[in-house]
Specification:
Blueprint: E1 2-13, E2 16-28, E3 33-37, H1 44-51, E4 60-69, E5 72-73, H2 79-85, E6 90-93, H3 97-100, H4 107-117, H5 123-136, H6 142-145, H7 155-166, E7 173-177, H8 185-202, E8 205-210, H9 213-219, E9 222-227, E10 230-236, H10 237-242, H11 247-254, H12 295-299, E11 304-306, E12 312-314, H13 326-333
Parallel strand pairs: 3-8, 3-9, 6-7, 7-8
Antiparallel strand pairs: 1-2, 1-4, 4-5, 9-10, 10-12, 11-12
Length: 337
């Protein structure tokens, strides 16, 4: 349904050219949930905003690649054509829900507005549909809530309103950019359950952006791990959690608390800092933080190795001529397997 090929994106800033994405590849099948994970600044949000074409034209430069939706390259679409795609075919839930909702408009009007934009002109029917959408996302007394403003809702309720808006036109793909950020754990679970329910009812595909690996295990079928503007590893949830091959993926796993973990056991953070994308390294972006880094890692970006039907990884450790003791690597991998 959606395929991103070799997406390379730069931004023009006062400090210079930021090479935000450098050859991103992934695909989303019909009715599938893909999670994109990685630490802040790795390119997750830039990737999905590129899919929606939300960047200011005078600041962004699409150097290479394609974003294929049902075989059509969205990078060639005009703004008028994209307006027909956004909300109707592909919708997005943003991270900061309070700034995503208009504080001067009732939530009902904000839902009916998108229905009107995409051709449903009957005001009465639009109101009925908006009320049903509010009810569907678990908002009590939706007839009253229809006429209320965003500030009259809690954070979790505002996120439910955003989901109602995003799902109003039954999009084929729903993009959720860290939708549970700043919500307490109980509300996070409720929002995730709601999204899974809607996904099953409507057979939507979902691209879920998160840094929370627990969320990934809960909702996704496939995972793409991003670092330094590239996808370093991708595969099924089982591939990433139990058969991962990239040291960065191992680092993410080892820095995550597990229920069976002893409370006295320390977490193992990934030492160092992410690369400066104003001047990205020519080799593997993770080389400066990787305990297995070799000379070639700093000089050459590793090719993508196919490890299975969906499992792919960019790492020189997978080269047959790699001098690193593979048995030691496997021991490291088994820490969290």
């Amino acid at each position: 349904m959606l395929e991103v090929k070799n997406l390379t994106v730069s931004f023009h800033t006062y400090a210079g050219e930021v090479q935000a994405l450098r050859g991103v590849d992934f695909a989303v099948e019909d009715g599938e949930v893909l999670a994109i994970v990685g630490e802040s600044g790795c390119g997750k949000s830039v990737t999905v905003q590129s899919v929606m074409q939300l960047h200011k034209p005078d600041t962004v430069d699409y150097k290479a690649g394609e974003i294929l939706y049902n075989g059509e390259n969205l990078l060639r679409y005009t703004e008028k054509q994209m307006q027909q795609i956004r909300g109707k075919e592909i919708s997005m839930i943003f991270q900061d829900v309070m700034t995503s909702l208009n504080p001067t408009m009732t939530v009902g009007k904000q839902i009916t507005e998108i229905l009107k934009i995409h051709g449903q002109k009957d005001a009465g029917k639009n109101k009925e549909q908006a009320i049903e959408l509010l009810r569907a996302v678990g908002i009590a007394n939706p007839e009253k809530r229809f006429d209320q403003y965003p500030h009259e809702f809690s954070g979790g309720m505002r996120q439910r309103v955003m989901i109602a808006i995003a799902s109003a036109c039954n999009p084929k793909i729903l993009i959720a950019d860290e939708p549970t950020t700043a919500l307490d754990v109980t509300v996070q679970a409720q929002i995730l359950d709601l999204m899974k329910e809607l996904q099953k009812e409507r057979n939507m595909s979902i691209i879920f952006i998160t840094h929370n690996l627990g969320v990934v295990a809960n909702i996704a079928q496939k995972v793409a791990v991003m670092y330094g503007g590239i996808v370093v590893e991708s595969g099924t949830v089982y591939d990433i959690f139990y058969r991962s091959k990239h040291p960065y993926t191992w680092g993410l796993m080892n820095s995550t608390f597990r229920l069976e973990q002893d409370k006295k056991e320390e977490l193992h953070p990934i030492e160092g800092t992410p690369p400066d994308l104003l001047n990205p390294p020519k080799g593997c972006p993770f080389a400066s933080r990787c305990e297995y880094a070799m000379k070639i890692c700093t000089e050459q970006l590793p090719e993508q190795t196919e490890l299975g039907t969906f499992h792919k990884c960019r790492c020189h450790l997978l080269d047959p001529d790699c001098p690193v003791d593979i048995d030691e690597v496997r021991k490291h991998e088994q820490k969290f397997s």
